[in-house]
Structures are given as structure tokens and as C-alpha cells.
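WARN no homologs supplied; continuing
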Amino acid sequence: MSQQTLAGRITRSQSGFFTVSTEQGDFVCRLRGRLKRGPKTGDIAAVGDEVRISLQGSQSGMIESVEPRESGLIRMAPTPRGMYQQVLVANPDQIVLVFACASPAPKRRLLDRFLVVCEKQHIPALIVANKVDLVGLRAAEEIFSLYTGIGYEVIYTSAESGLGVSALKDRLAGKLSCLAGPSGVGKSSLLNAIQPELGLRVREVSSLTTKGRHTTVVREMFPLDEGGYVVDLPGLRMLAMWDMEPEELDGYFPELSPLVRHCQFNDCTHLHEPGCAVREAVEKGQVHEARYQSYLRMRYGDDLEEFPET
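OK structure emitted
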């Protein structure tokens, strides 16, 4: 007779131990040995994965199988045996990119890098412009409205005044959302405004991951009262190093991608070639100059003369 198993979802991982949430409660589990056989080219299980477990005690179990992932926030890391696929979060519904309107000043070029990651991973992005109370709504829209023009949703919020908190709460409900953004932008305050003490709990776990070089990585999904989960992605390096070829970058800018096929040359660099549809669109104001410069900086880096931060 086959052993009875329970369906569940991994909500926390630390040092090879996985907390799995099931209809019968939470169980701390390890991977069954047979799942770890063969060459290890990537994380077998990660926070967000749907799994089946067998119970080994009142609060423990073994992960017997991992369901195929529908999506994943993945980073390719080089190892002596080749590239290794690190799964930061499995099956996320959206990535929520939180930036402040001021204090700290918003760095749109950094936001653009995050958006490229979302496009490459095929995960919807939601932009949250926080601390609107410091600059006013009109000034905030001047900073971030270019993103709505290319199809991204922007929610303007203030944890201080409560502006946009209800709208953000509605967008998080029932979804697995990954939060990312620079330090100091007010993620914890926003989460506390959505659900009391949620921001504090997220920050405590995030500090374990970022406290020191050799600190054990802890990843955890935090449940929302309205349904759904949030996962914090501490540390900007997590979203800064991705396996990407320079020539494919224009495909991850939604406003540039449809223009590329109209360039005169198939290998157009969008720098100086005649008949470049991208540069023509920039000159006509159809593509925002700041986004074009972000593209150039990401593709060519220090090979270009310095651009001012926008």
C-alpha cells in the first residue's frame, strides 16, 4: 500500500528545512533522498513550490514530490560544475517594485533594471511610488507617469497619509507577490499599513539574510489576512546579476521591442546606424529619452560616455 501524502506549499526555507503549509497545518520537512539524485543543476525545491509530503511525526514530514513550476524568479549563478539555477521564489504572481518619490531620491535607471528582470522572467510588474506626501501627487506623477505610458501599472502611496494603501492591498490580495526596492523606501511602513506588524515580521526575516556574508539565507512567504502572500527580496544584488545577452536586451523594453524589426540592419546597435527605428522614435518623442539612456547604459555600460542619473 502506498503511503498517504498531503498536498501543500512551501512557505519557508532555511538550511535544507522547508516549512510546508497544508490543510492539516504546517509541517517542517526535508527532501526525500531520491529527489536529490543525479546532477544538481538548480534548486529542487523553493519557497512557493507546490509539493506533496508524507508525515513523519506530529509536526514533521518528508517532501515526496515537487510539482512542475508555472514560473519562477530565477538567478543563474556560476559554479565550478557549470551554471546553477537559483530559485528565489517559485510560482510568483507579480513583482512589486517599491520606490520612494523622495528620501531617498528615486533612481529610475535602477527601476528600469528591475523591470528588465520582470520582462525576462515573464512575471508581471507592479510599480509602487511611495512617500507621495513628501512631494505631492503632481510631482510624483511627473517622476513615474512615463511607466504607465508603456503599459506598467503604478500605484501612488503614502504610508503616512494612507494614500493608495487600500488600492495596494487590493492588488496584493489572493496573489503571491515578491517585494523589491532600495532600502529606505518605506516597504515596512507600507506593509504595516496594510496589515499590523506585517512589515516588522518581514524586516526581521530579511535582516537574517542580509546581516552578514556567511549568514544562512532564509526565505519566507508571509500570509495576508485578505488571502495571498508577500515575499521580501532583500539586497539589490539579488536583482542585479542575471544571465542575459546584450543583444537581447531591447526585447525586454516593451516600447523598444516592436521597433527593432523596422531597423535597417538586423544587428542594429541603436547607437549610430542609419535607418535605426529606435533612435528615430526617441527623436520624435515616441520613446522617452530617459528609458533610451537606461537601455544604453545597461547594454554598453562604461563603454559609453557618462550619462547623468535620471
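Confidence is low (pLDDT under 50) at residues 305-310.
OK
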